[in-house]
Design goal:
Blueprint (H helix, E strand, L loop, with lengths): L23 H9 L7 H9 L16 H5 L2
Bound molecules: iron/sulfur cluster (SF4).
Length: 71
């Protein structure tokens, strides 16, 4: 496990999303600095490009990934 490769440009990691969930710090630890392959934003970015990651998608929302990727 290592730092997510999208960390520098990621709105979630850089606190540029509209809402900041109370769990943000924990998500950063578990996903951004942990296992980014389990992050919903990472999955969408890898599949269809970072520009297509919804602004309101948080790392734990993996249940939305399938629908986003299939458009
Ligand atoms: S939110 Fe996901 S895509 Fe963004 S830096 Fe963290 S692990 Fe990477």
């Amino acid at each position: 496990m290592s730092e997510c490769k999208m960390l520098e440009a990621c709105p979630f990691f850089n606190d540029r999303m509209a809402d900041k969930p109370g769990m943000a710090q924990l998500y950063k630890k578990n996903y951004c600095m942990g296992d980014s392959t389990q992050c919903a934003r990472y999955m969408v970015a890898e599949a269809i490009g970072p520009e297509n990651v919804p602004a309101d998608l948080y790392p734990n929302m993996i249940q939305r990934v399938g629908a986003i990727i299939s458009g």
